[in-house]
Specification:
This protein is an alpha+beta fold. The protein has one domain: SH3 type barrels. It has a 6-stranded antiparallel sheet with strand order 1-6-2-3-4-5. A hairpin with a 2-residue loop joins strand 4 and strand 5. The protein is globular. The protein starts with 8 loop residues before the first strand and ends in a 16-residue tail after the last strand.
Length: 97
């Protein structure tokens, strides 16, 4: 496995207040199209904002918009946690389709 993928985690495991960069989208079919329509593309920065009191769903900031994702959907998004806070989520993205 390439070194750059060793620290990749499911989005559902990203701690609240932390940012991650999308590296892969494992969803298929309609859910994949929905995620792509929401702007979940490779290299997009996503920040975990807050979690429901029941633990699911979690609110994520994606390209300046807050979007709630259930854990089962967030598990299908692979992100590389970012050490430094930076970027505004509008970096150049590459389609994962």
């Amino acid at each position: 496995m390439p070194k750059e993928f060793l620290d990749v985690i499911p989005l559902s495991q990203l701690p609240i207040g932390k940012k991650g960069m999308v590296v892969d989208l494992l969803a298929e079919g309609l859910i994949r199209h929905r995620m792509l329509d929401l702007g979940i593309l490779r290299n997009t920065i996503i920040e975990a904002k807050r979690r429901s009191p029941a633990g699911d769903p979690t609110a994520y900031e994606i390209r300046g918009t807050i979007i709630g994702l259930r854990k089962e959907d967030a598990c299908l998004i692979r992100v590389k946690p970012l050490e430094e806070s930076g970027g505004n989520g509008n970096e150049e993205s590459t389609s994962i389709s």
